[in-house]
Amino acid sequence: MGEALGLVPRQVRLAARAGLLDQHEDGSFDADCVARAAADQRRFLDALHREEPLSAAKAAQRLHISRARFARVARTAELPVVERQWLRRNGADVAVCYYRTADVDALLPHVVADIELRAAAAAVARSQAAAKAARTRAYNRERAQEARQLLSVRRPGADGDPVETVLWAVALGTAAGYLPPRLRRFRDDTRAAALADLVGQARLRPGELTALAQDAVSPALRVLPQLAAPGEVASRLGVPALRLAWHVPAVHGYVARSTLDELASEPPAWLVQLRGDLELERVSAMWSREQERVWEAARGRADAVLRDAERVVARVPDEAVAELFGLDLSVVEALRPRSGGWTAGYVARLLATRPAWLADDRTAWAEAERRAASARRRAAARQARGQEQRRDSRRKNDHDA
User: Fold this and answer.
1) Model's pTM, two decimal places?
2) Antiparallel, parallel or unpaired: β 83-89 and 92-100
3) Is the distance from CB of 171 to CB of 192 less than 8 angstroms?
4) How far apart, in Å, are the Cα atoms of 183 and each of 125, 186, 188, 192, 196?
5) By the 8 A CB rule, do 257 and 228 touch?
6) In the chain, which residues have pLDDT < 50?
7) Measuring CA to CA, which of 47, 191, 365, 384 is 20 to 30 A from 337?
8) pLDDT of residue 10
9) Region entry Disordered: which residue ranges (predicted)?
10) pLDDT in tens, 39-59
11) 360: which residues sit within 8 A by CB, 6+ positions away?
């Protein structure tokens, strides 16, 4: 039958599945149906071609769209899957779906609608983005204008406070990207960092910012001798310099000498309160250390008592050892370990292993004599080593003399 219509076996099976050819239960095809297909073979092949299964890639290529657009349109149009195959790719099972060619061709209106809809959405998004960008630019201009007004207020005069003069120079230098070496010690100050952020919000032109930063350097270097270092502030006021930042103008712990003299001569109430808080902290820390020492001593005494109790409880008397092994008390005393007593753990190991020298009094006495002889040999060896060391020492002294 395939030869009559010029079909390969796959096409024959496809025609039978699509209903283009009637197939009997025994696998043969209806002769009249085959004859009609052969009479108008072009029409039959066109119908068969519309039944061909297409993968997603082939379907997208047929519609001249991307695979992503085809997947979106097929999901929206609920395109039926005529065949599904599972393939192993990169260690995972992947489902490959096939779609009927006629159904894929019917998606064309949906594709056109998707293209138009996406284009309209993109146009709306561009319009919204343009409006948002316009609002953002307006906000940034307003913010920059406010920042410039604040900077004009913060800018110190020729006879301004030394702290504010240094802060101004440090903030401008930080924003411009360069600080003179003598001012770099102040760049970690929180007020200087906040003022540098304000300079950035002002959106000054690069040339304008550089000029301002250069103009601010000379006054700042000139007033540096008028600032007292944190160590001097702490020694004169009795309070760490960084704790004064909430009460007086300061930059990284440096305070104007005029302010320092005023605080030292007439301490305000808040300074007296700070001193009291520091003294309270010192006394509290000292009391805590003392309590810790007392607790440590108490724990040491308790640990010593517990260790003594453990040693007492862990000892087994000679009489009990003699009774456990059925030996004479005198041989048990002779076999006593070098530690001076029988520990419970050692006795338990002996009971578990039952060494041969614990069989009776005779073998026990032999073990005791062996241990005594071994002890005598060790003592003699130690004495010989001591004498040799003393002779070596005398020879060395005689040689040095």
Assistant:
1) 0.44
2) antiparallel
3) yes
4) 49, 6, 11, 11, 14
5) yes
6) 1-2
7) 384
8) 66
9) 374-401
10) 566 777 666 777 788 888 888
11) 326, 327
